[in-house]
Design a protein that fits this description.
Blueprint (H helix, E strand, L loop, with lengths): L6 E5 L2 E4 L4 E6 L10 E12 L6 E7 L2 E9 L2 E5 L4 E4 L4 E5 L4 E6 L9 E11 L10 E5 L6 E4 L2 E10 L2 E2 L8 E8 L4 E4 L5 E8 L1 E4 L2 E4 L2 E5 L5 E5 L3 E8 L7 E3 L2 E3 L2 H12 L19
Antiparallel strand pairs: 1-21, 2-3, 3-4, 4-11, 5-10, 6-9, 6-11, 7-8, 7-10, 9-12, 13-14, 14-15, 14-16, 16-23, 17-22, 18-21, 18-23, 19-20, 19-22, 24-25
Amino acid sequence: MTEPTSIENVIVPRLRDIGDFSVMRVLPAAARRMVGPFVFLDQFGPVTLPAGKGMDVRPHPHIGLSTVTYLLQGAIVHRDSLGFEQSIEPGDVNWMTAGRGIVHSERSDAELRKRPQSLYGLQSWVALPQRYEETDPAFLHYAGETLPEVQDGGVALKVIAGSVLGLTSPVKTHSDLFYGDVTLDAGARFVLDATYDERAAYIIEGTIEVEGASFEQGRLLAFAKDGEVVLKALTPARLVVLGGEPMDGPRHIWWNFVSSRLERIEEAKADWQRDQFGLRIPGEHEFIPLPE
């Protein structure tokens, strides 16, 4: 079968062990470092954690990016060095802008640990344009009911950020991008238009067909810049569509640091290693040391 001309890359995630469960690392990949401003995408779960267990991502730093947490099942408590503490639940959006520097932790709620709990979701990083890389850190939470949704012809769309099919999310961003949660009945079609030069779809569940070729769950399809892309569900399916305009130059990624300048990453590494980041999360005393 001829490869679809609309697809530039098919990315197969790598498995990463983070303690009590594993994540699938989608971006960055050797074949594709970024899609628009999206420089990182992880899927965690679906997993059921036994009573007494939970997510425990200890305090760690970020620079030069915004983190975007979007849950499908379960709950996570976010805490950061600005003093915010926020539980995120399915359909909500936590959008944290690191800018010149922030420290945060992500943990399971203490009460939920007392019984088995499901955990399933996506975390992405959005690189900041160069003029905003050293902006003030910030944290914003958007409840799921504030995000626009539409259902039609076996297609359900929820706009996480940016604009998709004429619907615009209230989520504040620093660059022109889009991020949507799409659920399809078997046989339904979703048409991704050519508004943006860089576009991709990550298949969370089910099997999708593009130009007669089928792709199973756990695949990122990165599309060519021109023309509509028709995504047909061969089974009930769920995916996210994401992308935006190309960034204003390449980005360097090392651990949790993103920057257009290598020297800025070296500075952040040294600050964290010497405990000179100058940021603390109220009530938390643990931290993740700089990787060797």
